[in-house]
Amino acid sequence: xxxxxxxxxxxxxxxxxxxxxxxxxxxxxxxxxxxxxxxxxxxxxxxxxxxxxxxxxxxxxxxxxxxxxxxxxxxxxxxxxxxxxxxxxxxxxxxxxxxxxxxxxxxxxxxxxxxxxxxxxxxxxxxxxxxxxxxxxxxxxxxxxxxxxxxxxxxxxxxxxxxxxxxxxxxxxxxxxxxxxxxxxxxxxxxxxxxxxxxxxxxxxxxxxxxxxxxxxxxxxxxxxxxxxxxxxxxxxxxxxxxx
Length: 244
Fold this sequence. Notes:
The strands form two sheets. Strands 4-3-2-1-5-6-7-14-9-12 form a ten-stranded mixed beta sheet, with helices on both faces. A four-stranded antiparallel beta sheet has the order 8-13-10-11, with no helix packed on it. By secondary structure, it is an alpha/beta fold. It is built from six helices and 14 strands. The two termini are 23 Å apart.
């Protein structure tokens, strides 16, 4: 598995999911977010986030979504009126799954995803605001490992790049010039996770991580790639130098 930072976004084919949250309503949006969104062939938008994109799409600064999904409890009538003739609108009523999880299922149904013509799924937002929403986003990314098979899911907020690594061997490469070097790898499953790493200031060798023991936060990168091997999924966080 490999990942990347935003400066390399134009080198890859991505499906982007714009997630509801405070960042969806901040204007102007980070320039790199707009670049990632506009370059993506598949642009999914959760219903509440469509409200934040409305003025940008009206002004031609961002491409219209290709799909808006959700239970539509937060989609404003003005937004629906504008977008309903421009993209697919899919109502997903299952209350046992988050809107992000349901959106990832829709992404997985796309022909280009099934044919492995998409390199990454990128989540914009979803990691700011309420802590329970942040944890729900991580859970959705964990579920996404199964939904999207081998396609990595990467999330950006104002200062972090976050991905959930599947169990097994993972090599992650990145543009270190865009990172502060501060990072962490955190067990998310509710049992101890055995980890071996390479490329960090503080590496581990068959070391057990758990929330009632040790987790790795405030670690540091030593190069432009890292290797991790674990017997269960890990959350990898990388701090960005500048706002995306």
